Amino acid sequence: MTDTFRTADRGRVDRNHPVAFNFDGRHYNGFTGDSLASALLANGVHLVGRSFKYHRPRGILSAGAEEPNALVTVVRDAGRTTPNLRATQVELYPGLRAFSQNRFPSLHFDIGGVAKFVAPLLGAGFYYKTFMWPGSWWKRLYEPAIRRAAGLGRAPRSADPDRYTQRYAHCEVLVIGAGAAGLAAARAASEHGGRVILCDEQAEFGGALLHETCTLEGKAATEWVADCIATLHARGVRLLPRTTAFGWFPGNMIGLVERITDHLPAPPPELPRERLWQVRAREVVIAAGAIERPLVFPGNDRPGIMLADAARCYLHRYGVKVGTRAVVATSDDSAYRAGIDLHRAGIEIAVIADARVAPDATLVAEAKAAGIEVRTGTVAGTAGRLRVHGVELRGSGRVQCDVLLMSGGWTPSVHLFSQSRGKLRFDDGLGAFVPGVSAARERSAGGCVGSFETVDCIEQGSAAGDEAARGVQRAAIGVIGSARRPATATSVTHGKAFVDFQNDVTAKDLKQVAQEGFRSIEHVKRYTTTGMATDQGKTSNLNALALVATTLHRPVPAVGHTTFRMPYTPVTFGALAGAARGELFDPVRLTPMHACAEQRGAVFEDVGNWKRARYFPLRGEDMHAAVARECLAVRNAVGVFDGSTLGKIEVTGPDAAAFLDRMYTGSFARLGVGRCRYGLMLNEAGFVMDDGVVARLAPARFHVTTTTGGAAHVLHHMEDYLQTEFPDLRVWLTSITEQWAVIAVQGPGARAVVATVVGGIDCDAMPHLSVRQGQVAGVPARLFRVSFTGEVGYEINVPAGHGAAVWDAVLAAGAAHGIAPYGTEAMHVLRAEKGYIVVGQETDGTVTPDDLGMGWAIGKAKDDFVGKRSLRRADMERTGRRQLVGLLTDEVLEEGAQITDMHGGPSLGHITSAYFSAVLGRSIALALVASGRARIGQMLLVPMEHGGVAVQVTDPVFYDRDGARLHG
Amino acid sequence: MLLIPCPWCGARPEIEFHYGGEAHIARPERPTELDDAAWAEFLYMRTNPKGPHAERWRHIHGCGRFFNCVRDTVSDKVLVTYKPGESRPPLP
Fold this sequence. Notes:
The structure holds 2 protein chains of 2 kinds. Chain A is an alpha+beta fold. Helix content of chain A is 23%, strand content 28%. In chain A, the strands form 13 sheets. In chain A, strands 8, 9, 12, 13, 14, 15 and 28 form a 7-stranded mixed sheet that branches. Chain A has a 7-stranded mixed sheet with strand order 40-41-42-43-39-33-44, sandwiched between helices. In chain A, strand 49 and strand 50 form a beta hairpin. Helix content of chain B is 10%, strand content 36%. Chain B is built from 1 helix and 6 strands; from the N terminus they run E-E-E-H-E-E-E. A 4-stranded antiparallel sheet of chain B has the order 3-4-5-6, with no helix packed on it. In chain B, a hairpin with a 3-residue loop joins strand 1 and strand 2. Chains A and B meet through helix 20 of A and helix 1 of B.
């Protein structure tokens, strides 16, 4: 197809480089420098999509980021498929394949268009009112059907194969927007020598100057742009085209997303697709420009109806005539320029219809001098199905046309200013919001403060850049507002007059909700969904606001505005995720013995960031069989366990014992060197927070263990008290979790195994709860005699780098004793058989030491420790608190299951742990039960889905109650 | 992202810090001598002001030290930071 709507010579497209592309399976030609939208218009294609709700045919409305209609899916391959791209921002490249959205079977014949017959059911808030009965039909029938019919593009199902990067940048001045004001601001700021960054969402700098025909500083507009860029380049300003400032974050941190390869026919594999910039700017100049407002009249959404200045842009920048015969409907001065420019380019202007009673006489005269008819009046309706072919003007009848250009005035882009928490001010002259009071180090200039003359923009931009570099603060630079108040943008008596094109919200919907009693604009927004589409209402918000204000008979500023939220335009998940995908999503912590466990076929589980061996199945074993075998090995012979993930803190200094006395419930001042003691840690509110073993290596040196999950928090908690409450204590805390590998050897055969690998330590002389330093397998070691199984137990600590070798040595030494490695699952069963708690499983932040039956762990003679005073609060001492008990059960119950009396009364507590115990040959559970210790011997009920299960309350220690095995 | 001036390291991004609750709430010297009401006052009662709020932060991924900070809870701006043990300075 030839592009018949291309002018002979205008525009910035490169006519020496034609570009073949494909839209909805048809081949077209454009030029390098075209957007997908301009190339389609050059081929006479206006119909590019179907609307969200009513499936109405839609065309290209704008030429920029505000485009609500022309959303397309661009396809490179299965994984590189991007839906919902604005055709106005998609740069053309050879071979580009794009598809329209939300239509079936085709754009020209869309079966969803029958939605117009049920349209009366689909008004504002229809999903709250219709499809309500019968209730069960909503999930099965209504919702899936509505979801299929409504919607935008489909997300690809394959993984995204592209790479995305992120970088931080710092600068004195960040200038957002490279139109007249932004270029002038960057030029002025760069004179001061600081770091300046200039970004713009378009491929080319220049903004509206790329379609201006004026002369600036004695040069053509585009020449002025080129000279400006050369100056900035020479001054070392960082220039970022194709880069959208999408969000403003506290501390003048601005998020930019730079599109690097989307415009290339074959992206080089070494380049990332996008780069996320997090720019910390001392000062910011916002030069974001302004967006033209559509008019609201019946049938204002037909293909061929577009914004007036967009038509000018397509003509001057892309050399594209948007039609052959145009009607201009306006309530603002700027559309006259569009009419005259298009007329001069050979497009017939049937009439300029000005909604204002008394339009500017000079402009009217200018238009008439050019031979254009000007009438006052509004649009009553339009005709045409897939393309507009006529306009009904109120009072003056039908006018034939193939394109209708509209302008309802301009809306300053205050998105970033508002995101920076600046307060907006309603400007009567503009009929729009402008920056009022700043909250961050920024200032706005040019179109985004309501200045639309290029010379004003340059002047304001220069002042803004200069003041930013010098740190002078003003919210808005320049004269705000003009006297030309646009007339009200709406002229609706009947029919569908669209306000929000992307979400299919009409003037009638907005009036209806105001009549239904909605007053807050935030409620109106959510109920009608106006402004909630992917364009966030760039073209619609102000019109919606004006309509609601009119209906409520209140001034616009009294109705207020909705919150501007990031992102300005949609941002890919890829850019936000950066490298944090797959294996790099979250750090993985591996123990020094990880490879040994892998070699033995261990099944791992995630515990925080750690990978822990859960069990070691032999050939043909399932988890139940493996865990039972591992448990019996520990009870009858010897087992070996990787305990390296335990948190470990070295506490040193002359006051170390005094400090630990305050942090733990137990008493450590008189703990002998070479001895260990169980440590229970409470928070200040008296609830159990962590536990571990405190070992005294020397008078002023302790080796303290914590739970795996609590390690970081316990160290933070200790530092908190040490630094802020007890700064007089001479104590130093060092995390040694990663420095020591821990190999637990447990079972009746443990002593024999350990004795063969130690050097310089007499195992026979080591009582339970003692520690020695010496060698294990020739490596310096700290050897603890501790047990979390109830059997004779040792924990061999060796420097992490030696962990794997020592693990192998222990296994070799244990072979003759029937040693078996066991995992976390067996560890849990073994400790539960002994009634040992796991903090976070038996406790949940509301459990006291006495609730656990661990009053013995509290140093009675101690005057104070963290949490002590709270234990005396009335609620902590009351009767009826939930206490830890054991349950004998007929099946392995679910952890978290509720417990009641035998009549199924109110909950008495819940199950905290439940396992099958191989050594007892039955299932057991630990539970927290109201007055549990007084209930020992009673039967209680655990209501499950399949019926109540009777359980017998018992002591939490199921196995070896007198502890004979512990001391071997 | 907030930029927080650590009194020892200088301005650093928020992700290096850990919040530590309201500042200038000293643990009583002799908790055992307090009645339940006085202890609850220390344990649970906080001012929660709208506006400048003195709070504790820790430069947990930097020097590891606690310090105090006055932050405006309306604007979420850090107004001043100072070392522990120092009294709350006048706002700039």
